[in-house]
Amino acid sequence: MARARLMILIRIAVLAAVFVYLCSLTFPVWAAGGDTVLSAQEWFDRGRFMGEIGNYHKAVEAFSRVIELAPDSLHAYNNRGVAYSELGNYRLAIQDFNRAVHLNPKEVLFRFNRGVAFAKGEEYDLAIKDFKRVIAMDPQHSNARFLLGLIQRSTPGEGHTGADNIKTSARMGNKEAQEYLRARFMGWF
To answer: What mean pLDDT comes out for the span 84-98?
Structure first.
């Protein structure tokens, strides 16, 4: 039952992170040549829309077209990885996040998303590694700290450290962490 709750909380956190990311996304994607009906940017926009409405199969198709037209579109790899993850295909999601990280190792979001895919695929040691790296890169990343804490709470010998990470995330203003602690009558002040 604890694993089921963990998976639900991870899914909620991922959806929230993806929503925030998609709402704030403004970056150029190189357009395709004149022989295609849609440009890479148009395919990208279509993929974003499909992801927003929950049609992840169509999102994967659209982001795959972007990658065909603009092979270095790191955001297309990231977003296709999110769509694969939502479809439960964590191996393909992780491959796409790996490619995005390779293209831009300083982008925290790509490592965070890969950590979520590892966690959803029950590769908790790799998820912990990614979440710790995200926190090292961005100490104020409350979502990474919260998810790291959730995994640690369900890991023998790490329960106290996990609780501390969740409390720190709550103090940073993470609403999911605050709700998690409230539901368990645990304070974070």
So the answer is: 98
Between CA 113 and CA 65, with CA 71 as vertex, the angle to 5 degrees is 85
The long-range contacts involving 171-176, CB below 8 angstroms and separated by at least 24 positions, are 172/140, 172/142, 172/145, 173/142, 174/142, 174/143, 174/145, 174/146, 176/9, 176/12, 176/13, 176/16, 176/143, 176/146
Q: By C-alpha distance, which of 165, 154, 109, 169 is closest to 134? A: 109
The single-letter code of the amino acid at 81 is G
Q: Which amino acid is at 5?
A: R
> What is the end-to-end Cα distance of the chain in Å, rounded?
28
Domains of the chain: 2-183 (1.25.40.10)
* CA-based max dimension of the chain: 61
DSSP state letter for 30: P
Distance CA(116)–CA(45), nearest Å, equals 24
Contact 15, 34 (CB under 8 A): no
Q: What is the spatial distance between Cα 81 and Cα 113, in angstroms, rounded to a whole number?
A: 8
* Residue in the block written with tokens 């992840």: 56
Which of 120, 149, 157, 156 lies closest to 132 in space, CA to CA? 149
pLDDT tens per residue, range 20-48: 454 444 333 333 344 447 999 999 999 99
**The whole model's pTM is what?**
0.77
